[in-house]
């Protein structure tokens, strides 16, 4: 099988890999680039565990052809923390018990990040809508929604301060 | 932020007010890994040269395998190994054999027939997942479809298709004697005759898939020194380790199992089917092998919460008191036992729900059908029957024309009441729960119901008694007659029932260890129970013999008592070193007599807590 080169920015780092034709972005991020944050839950676009941001928009990595991210900016949950400093979203998830098994968390965080980047003051309904594509089987969603609202408030506070 | 509301005024005198953590968000010790994406689930361990395993599965509910032709699959690109049933060293198991409960009834890869849709018969290991999938499609199986049965009661009809050859009556054998689990407490028939109303109801649950976001799977790889490492999604690491050791006929010291990080389990990750196959793949190919379910398999092959059908019949007095309750339960185990047999034992201990009812009887059948085998899920064995009980309580309330919350308060168990499985109720709180719920819902309660308390009025007179209990033909239930029950172990008669468990009637003998590998040498773990014992070296137990008992007539639930089931011819088992503590050592020559009554549980030396009727606290 012929492999083609793909270059993209992964979490701020220039990355180049050779991929098989038809390879999906999730496999390439996990196995070729070695970033294990996005998870494989269903490979059908149903669960959202593989959610990443491509040029600032959420995408399901399991349904994205790796070759289509050529020259683009891909971000996973690994990009959120600044060294040991957690992102306000991560901090709110930690303090609000918004993860139990943790399998959906990296995808959930990316869906939340995309929302807050686009809309710093979301309503509860908008938060619910934004994570509607991400399935969590442990928490019952309430702590996650609360954590996202808490993080939004903190981010707004930072900007106005 | 917390929406929890405390009612510390309730039971204030029963405990110190030291709830420093409950109700406050706490920091999970593993959550930093979760939010930074650094938590490593089993699939986050990367191996060079990882091979992928997929299974050939049954497209039928019930079919005989005439022949399997995998010659084309073998020649497909990337295929490294076809694993056939005969490649599995010990190709028969039941999960709970590790605690000596039930007979081996399920193959890892099936040889002769399949009993549910999706049952695996062949495993294919290839270099990529895609190649493994393609090879699976290239396998030709000649199936002979058999009649199938998908309904629990149809499975009990005498000439119903035999689902599971180990249990030819389509029911699990309880205690080598019954085709169902029994509970008898008092005399239901007599009480129902005197009751003002008889309320009957039937309730049916569906199977429920646990649906974790991470599907079940395992990666196994050869390690140094002839060991194999296995990263697994299992919820039950030692079930998986023990099952793998047994099925691969391999000492567990050669297996290095790593688990504990589970991407959601909810009960669906205890069955231990992935680990034996993944390790076997690594053994046979010498390479790392991943065996994982895709989402479709997780939903269709993954064992769900078993469906249950319950029939309840209550005897109720005009004032709302329930004087008798009778259950007939059918638990859909699917094609194999897994954990359903145990779920029923657990559920029977819960009957008749959190209510004090003086006469209770129950027959629960663990039924084999050609459905996906059922397994654990959150409170399994309890949730299903609770649904039935609480629906039925509403029906009773409607019948007697009573507020359903007041009916519950009237019949609620209270501290000191005797429950149907012969343990005293302690720390009960149903009445207070009902009162708070009524207040929240704006349901007015009578003065009497509002004043009721769980800590008052319980344990008085009959409420604390074990009633005179009917025995069946075998005389096995109800042998603890009220007037013979001593307060002190082996003491005089009284009307208060506390029986030292496992100390009356026939001696309870621990079942022997099925696999000598699993035998614990008591001297190594500091037990002195059988030091001086004539501990014969553990003998290899015979491979399970297929018992073929005569056909059994359809059981008639509850009335009249079922005819005694002829015991299946049991293969003679060798005596175990743990067999009988009374014979074990000169120091144990007098029968064991506990110094405490049943209430606290009695640990009898050398006897498994699972079978002696004792309970660890």
Overview of the molecule:
- The complex is a heterodimer of chains A (161) and B (617).
- Chain A has helices spanning 25-32, 88-95, 105-118, 124-130, 142-160, and strands at 3-10, 13-20, 51-54, 57-60, 73-75.
- Chain A has 161 residues and is α+β, with helices and mostly antiparallel strands.
- Chain B has 617 residues and is an alpha+beta fold.
- Chain B has a domain at 44-146 and 215-300: Aldehyde oxidase/xanthine dehydrogenase, a/b hammerhead (Aldehyde Oxidoreductase, domain 3, Alpha-Beta Complex).
- Chain B has helices at residues 31-36, 71-74, 129-137, 188-194, 237-247, 274-285, 295-300, 340-350, 383-400, 404-411, 430-441, 447-451, 581-584, and strands spanning 51-57, 63-69, 79-83, 113-114, 120-126, 140-145, 181-185, 197-204, 217-222, 228-232, 255-258, 289-292, 308-316, 322-334, 360-368.
- In chain B, strands 3-5-1-12-9-10-11 form a seven-stranded mixed sheet, sandwiched between helices. In chain B, strands 7-15-14-13-8 form a five-stranded mixed sheet.
- In chain B, helix 8 links the parallel strand 14 (322-334) and strand 15.
- In chain B, helix 10 packs antiparallel against helix 11.
- Chain B is globular and about 80 Å long.
- Classes of the chains: A alpha+beta (161), B alpha+beta (617).
- Chain A binds chain B through residues 31, 34-44, 46-47, 49, 76-78, 80-81, 86, 89-90, 93-97, 99-106, 109, 135-138, 146, and chain B through 1, 25-28, 30-41, 43-44, 46, 210-215, 262-266, 294-295.
Q: Please state the average pLDDT score of chain A.
A: 95
Q: Give the biggest sheet of chain A.
A: 5 strands, mixed
* Lateral strand order in the biggest sheet of chain A: 2-1-5-3-4
N- to C-terminal distance of chain B: 36 Å
**Overall morphology of chain B:** globular
Overall shape of chain A: it is globular
Determine the CATH superfamily of the domain at 44-146 and 215-300 in chain B. Answer: Aldehyde oxidase/xanthine dehydrogenase, a/b hammerhead
Assigned CATH class of the domain at 44-146 and 215-300 in chain B = Alpha Beta
């Amino acid at each position: 099988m012929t492999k083609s080169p793909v270059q993209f920015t992964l979490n701020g780092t220039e990355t180049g890999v050779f991929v098989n034709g038809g390879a999906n972005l999730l496999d390439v991020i996990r196995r070729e680039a070695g970033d294990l944050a996005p998870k494989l839950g269903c490979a059908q676009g149903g669960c959202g565990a593989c959610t990443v941001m491509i040029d600032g928009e959420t995408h399901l990595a399991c349904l994205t052809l790796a070759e289509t991210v050529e020259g683009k900016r891909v971000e996973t949950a690994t990009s959120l923390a600044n060294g040991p400093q957690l992102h306000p979203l991560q901090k709110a998830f930690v303090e609000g018990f918004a993860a139990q098994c943790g399998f959906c968390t990296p995808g959930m965080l990316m869906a939340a990040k995309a929302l807050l980047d686009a809309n710093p003051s979301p309503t509860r309904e908008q938060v619910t809508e934004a994570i509607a594509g991400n399935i969590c089987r442990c928490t019952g969603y309430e702590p996650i929604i609360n954590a996202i609202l808490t993080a939004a408030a903190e981010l707004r506070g930072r900007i106005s301060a | 932020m917390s929406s929890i509301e405390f009612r510390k005024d309730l039971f204030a005198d029963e405990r110190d007010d030291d709830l420093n953590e409950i109700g406050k968000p706490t920091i999970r010790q593993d959550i930093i890994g979760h939010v930074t994406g650094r938590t490593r689930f089993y699939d986050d361990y990367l191996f060079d040269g990882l091979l992928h395993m997929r299974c050939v599965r049954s497209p039928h509910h019930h079919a005989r395998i005439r022949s399997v032709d995998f010659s084309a699959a073998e020649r497909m690109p990337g295929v490294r190994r076809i694993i056939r049933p005969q490649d599995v060293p010990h190709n028969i198991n039941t999960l709970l054999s590790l605690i000596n409960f039930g007979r081996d009834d399920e193959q890892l890869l099936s040889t002769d027939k399949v009993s549910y849709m999706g049952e695996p018969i062949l495993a294919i290991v290839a270099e990529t997942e895609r190649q493994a999938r393609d090879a699976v499609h290239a396998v030709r199986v000649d199936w002979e479809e058999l009649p199938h049965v998908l309904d629990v009661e149809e499975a009990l009809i005498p000439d119903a298709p035999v689902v599971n050859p180990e249990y030819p009556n389509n029911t699990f054998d309880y205690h080598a004697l019954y085709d169902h689990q029994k509970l008898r407490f008092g005399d239901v028939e007599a009480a129902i005759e005197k009751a003002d109303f008889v309320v009957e109801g039937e309730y049916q649950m569906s199977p429920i898939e646990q649906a974790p976001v991470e599907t079940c799977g395992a990666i196994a790889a050869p390690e140094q020194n002839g060991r194999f490492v296995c990263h697994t999604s299992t919820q039950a690491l030692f079930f998986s380790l023990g099952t793998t050791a047994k099925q691969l006929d391999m000492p567990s010291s050669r297996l290095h199992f790593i688990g504990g990080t589970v991407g959601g389990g909810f009960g669906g990750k205890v069955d231990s089917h992935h680990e034996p196959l993944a390790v076997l793949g690594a053994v046979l190919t010498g390479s790392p092998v991943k065996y994982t379910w895709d989402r479709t398999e997780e939903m269709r092959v993954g064992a769900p919460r078993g469906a249950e059908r319950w029939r309840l019949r209550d005897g109720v007095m005009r004032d709302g008191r329930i004087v008798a309750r009778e259950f007939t339960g059918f638990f859909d185990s699917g094609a194999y036992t897994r954990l359903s047999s145990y779920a029923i034992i657990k559920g029977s201990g819960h009957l008749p729900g959190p209510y004090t009812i003086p006469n209770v009887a129950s027959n629960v059948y663990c039924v084999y059908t050609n459905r996906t085998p059922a397994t654990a899920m959150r409170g399994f064995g309890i949730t299903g029957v609770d649904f039935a009980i609480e629906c039925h309580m509403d029906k009773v309330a409607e019948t007697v024309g009573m507020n359903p919350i007041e009916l519950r308060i009237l019949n609620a168990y209270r501290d000191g009441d005797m429950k149907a499985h012969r343990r005293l109720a302690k720390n009960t709180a149903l009445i207070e729960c009902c009162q708070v719920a009524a207040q929240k819902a704006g349901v007015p309660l009578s003065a009497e119901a509002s004043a009721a308390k769980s800590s008052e009025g319980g344990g008085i007179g009959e409420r604390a008694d074990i009633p005179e209990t009917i025995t069946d033909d075998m005389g096995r239930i109800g042998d603890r007659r009220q007037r013979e029950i001593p307060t002190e172990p082996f003491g005089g008669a009284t009307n208060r029932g506390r029986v030292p468990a496992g100390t009356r009637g026939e001696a309870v003998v621990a079942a022997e260890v099925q696999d000598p590998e699993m035998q614990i040498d008591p001297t190594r773990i500091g037990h002195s129970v059988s030091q001086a014992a004539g501990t014969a070296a553990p003998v290899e137990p015979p491979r399970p013999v297929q018992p073929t008992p005569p056909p059994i007539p359809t059981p008639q639930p509850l009335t009249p008592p079922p005819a005694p089931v002829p015991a299946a011819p049991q293969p003679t088992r060798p005596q175990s070193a743990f067999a009988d503590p009374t014979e074990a050592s000169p120091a144990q020559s007098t029968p064991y007599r506990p110094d405490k009554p049943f209430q606290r549980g009695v640990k009898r030396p050398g006897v498994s807590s699972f079978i002696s009727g004792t309970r660890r606290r």
